[in-house]
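Support request, please re-run this one:
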Amino acid sequence: MSDAPDLPEGYEFSADTDRVDVDRVHRWLSTDAYWAVGRSREKQDHAMAASLNFGVYETASGEQVAYARVVTDRALFGWLADVYVDPSVRGKGIGTALVGGIREHLRSYGLRRVLLATHDAHGVYEKLGFAPLERPDHWMALYFETSGDAK
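Re-run finished. Output below.
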């Protein structure tokens, strides 16, 4: 357990995967996250197993209130994904603190860059040092057709 920058009183940041409430995270993402609606539990479990997992928890109850994961080689590159804050605690700075805690956790790996994609939270990430790609024309993506499972 470590402290995330500016985490509101009564909440704690953790990089302990064993602490993640996998049922809650799957429910959040598969039913309420525009990028993951319909994602199967099997797909979510596999993604979590191949990632670093982070959470924010209520200190008193231990209840998880936010989640994010990072896919990384732990040397050069990371991809921040599935950042989610429970609607009941949004607006308290928990999302910003979660990503700030992740940034500090990743700093020790000496990564060259961490990427993410967002439809609507650019301001949150900009506060933490994320910026648009300098040369988007250098980047490409390979897309696979999915068999009914969300991206």
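The chain has four helices and five strands. Strands lie at 11-14, 52-58, 64-72, 77-85, 113-115.
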